[in-house]
Design goal:
The complex is a heterodimer of chains A (about 500) and B (about 110). Chain A has about 500 residues and is an alpha/beta fold. With about 110 residues, chain B is α/β, with parallel strands linked by helices. In chain B, strands 1-2-4-6-7 form a five-stranded mixed β-sheet. Classes of the chains: A alpha/beta (about 500), B alpha/beta (about 110). Chains A and B meet through strand 23, strand 26, helix 11 and helix 13 of A and helix 1, helix 2 and helix 3 of B.
Chain lengths: ~500, ~110
């Protein structure tokens, strides 16, 4: 890119101090130059570019995010470069940085904004007929004495003086013999949501193979990938999902069954739930930024979109210990329920134990435990459920295969009857042991279950809800123990049937 | 949950304005109880979600429940005035294909 006539390596100058946080940085609570774009941030792409230009020494101007950027850049060894940092105060820009660097050598490469990076392979910059205000390419090489290029945001360039003569420029001021406007297709930017998505698509178009799949990615055979598409390292794509065209999935993300993602970017470590449709959006964690609607939506339901949770060893150990403690605590009730279930198998069709009502949980529903059990699906028996489902199922909590709170387990035929949008929620893996079948009692309302599912799955406040529900559940359990096995309440037949249908 | 219910004289459609900033697990039961009589008393119901800035899946479930109730009676349920984040959520879960969604009350009334 730079016209290299001298053997000495060019000096790299990189301004990594955005004057102000962009709207996108505020949305995702991350400086835009470290937002990962197909596995690599703009900051790293800038340094890659300087390395490709042959820079051995790079001067990096730092602003408010100095600590973060220093941590990400390190000493520059991975690029084979020596990094020198310069702290800039508010209001100082690329011209101050250039002066800090001192007299320029004959060759230099300057990136005036780490948030505006030329696309890989952009060597032939077009003329000034491009779009206005995107970025500018500056080159000075009238006598081949020194040359370089700079890419600056239009606002910065407008404020700078560009002397025409070489001598004027040799004192450290950026010179411009030729300034051309880069079209958007040549620039990667992340100052706005639209720019980020456009940059993502630019990268997809520029990639050498239409479909790129990262290391360790697992893609279900029934999933569909439509080029151009980028699948990051360690991504998992489940059955019947459709990804692309123009979609990128960040490393470590999970795209669940039946979901469609097109013209969108899923940033790393993000879970995208089942049967969803992500179009013209950027998703990070539980935040959905829609370019189509120009808005940002926080999704409260962890079964829709959510950050991927990676348990630490300590967290796993703590979970196992909690499970063991719960098993020990509930062991007497388990033995009691087993004996009761063995004593009265013939009564399964008519037995229901209604535990004390009046315990309030979120939503104001009285808690009544009436859950499935017994040999056939229509029977209602908490003792059977407890002995056969809940207690053995506790071990699943330790393995992370089931959550304590989550949707009600439903049979496949029942799921098939649900509205399409809800069908995806009901895979066994994401069901909870404490589900709406033990948290609600209104069997006549088919939507109660869905509300309970949402309640249980809400990411915001889930812990508090889980604590309340668990406390309520334990209260019921001990109340049942104290009441003894002979206090049975026979549920009305109609209720049982409805419950049986609900629980399938 | 407070609902402002009016009736359009020309179309006889009920217009329900949800006067809450959110429709979520905390108020969805109240919403269903409040809207139930309106659904039963009218052949066409328009729901104004303008003031609602946040909906979670229980809120979506409640709206689905309303739609199902109206469909069972061969009635019409239309939604208008959605805030952009709510609209984005509807598209995320593909509910924009199930509901008749309009930008303004006039647009919604014109289709009744």
């Amino acid at each position: 890119m730079a016209e290299s006539t001298n053997a000495s390596p060019p000096i790299g100058i990189l301004l990594a101090a955005p004057a102000d946080y962009s709207s996108l940085a505020r949305v995702f609570a991350v400086p835009e130059l470290v937002l990962p774009l197909q596995g690599k941030s703009l900051l790293h792409r800038s340094l890659d570019l300087l390395a490709r230009e042959g820079c051995k020494v790079v001067h990096v101007g730092l602003g408010n995010d100095a600590v973060l950027i220093k941590a990400l850049v390190g000493d520059g060894e991975r690029w084979g470069m020596q990094i020198e940092f310069h702290s800039l105060t508010s209001g100082q820009g690329v011209d101050q940085l250039v002066r800090r660097v001192g007299p320029l050598s004959e060759q230099w490469v300057l990136i005036g904004d780490a948030c505006l990076v030329p696309t890989d392979g952009t060597t032939d910059f077009p003329g000034p007929a491009g779009r206005d205000g995107v970025a500018l390419f500056v080159q000075h090489s009238p006598h081949k004495r020194w040359s370089g290029w700079a890419m600056l945001p239009g606002s910065v360039l407008r404020d700078m003086q560009f002397p025409e003569s070489l001598e004027d420029g040799s004192n450290g001021t950026v010179c411009a013999a030729r300034a051309v406007v880069l079209p958007e297709s040549c620039v990667l930017a992340a100052h706005s949501l639209a720019a980020l998505l456009q940059s993502d698509q630019t990268l997809l178009q520029a990639q050498q193979t239409p479909i790129r799949i990262g290391r360790g990615a697992r893609i279900h055979p029934s999933a569909t990938l439509l080029a151009p598409v980028h699948i990051g390292d360690g991504v998992r794509i489940e059955a019947d999902a459709t990804v692309g065209p123009y979609a990128s999935i960040g490393s470590g993300s999970f795209v669940d069954q039946g979901t469609t993602i097109r013209s969108s970017a899923v940033l790393p470590e993000t879970y995208v739930g089942k049967e969803l449709e992500v179009v013209e959006s950027v998703v990070r964690g539980n935040r959905l930024a829609s370019v189509k609607f120009g808005t940002v939506a926080d999704v409260a339901d962890a079964h829709l979109v959510a950050p991927m949770l990676r348990d630490s060893r300590l967290a796993r150990l703590r979970r196992w210990l909690s499970v063991i403690a719960l098993q020990v605590l509930l062991a007497p009730l388990y033995l009691l329920c087993r004996r009761r279930a063995a004593d009265s198998p013939a009564d399964y069709d008519s037995i229901a134990i209604t535990l004390p009502a009046g315990i309030r949980v979120t939503g104001g529903q009285p808690v009544i435990a009436r859950v499935r059990g017994g040999p056939d699906a229509a029977s209602v028996c908490p003792a059977g459920h407890f002995a056969r489902v809940f207690y053995p199922g506790l071990s699943l909590l330790g393995r992370g295969a089931m959550s304590l709170l989550g949707p009600t387990p439903r049979s496949r035929p029942e799921v098939a009857k649900l509205p399409h949008v809800w069908a995806g929620l009901y895979a066994e893996r994401r069901c909870g042991l404490l589900n709406d079948s033990v948290l609600t009692h209104d069997w006549s309302d088919p939507e109660t279950g869905l509300a309970g599912d949402a309640l249980a799955c809400m990411q915001q406040g889930e812990r508090a809800h889980m604590r309340r529900a668990l406390a309520a559940y334990l209260k019921q359990v001990f109340a049942a123990i104290l009441r003894g096995p002979d206090k049975r309440i026979v549920a009305p037949r109609a209720e049982q049937t409805a419950a049986g249908q609900k629980l399938g | 949950m407070r609902l402002e219910v009016t009736t359009d004289d020309a179309s006889k459609a009920a217009i329900v304005e949800v006067q809450s900033e959110s429709l979520d697990a905390g108020n969805v039961k109240a919403f269903k109880e409040a809207v139930q009589p309106v659904l039963e008393g009218h052949a066409a119901v328009l729901i104004d979600l303008g003031p609602v800035g946040f909906v979670d899946s229980s809120g979506l479930g409640a709206l689905l429940s309303c739609l199902r109730a109206m469909n069972n009676r061969n009635g019409q349920l239309k939604i208008y005035g959605m805030a952009k984040p709510v609209r984005a959520l509807f598209e995320l879960v593909r509910m924009h294909r199930i509901f008749a969604i309009y930008n303004t009350r006039e647009e919604a009334l014109a289709t009744v």
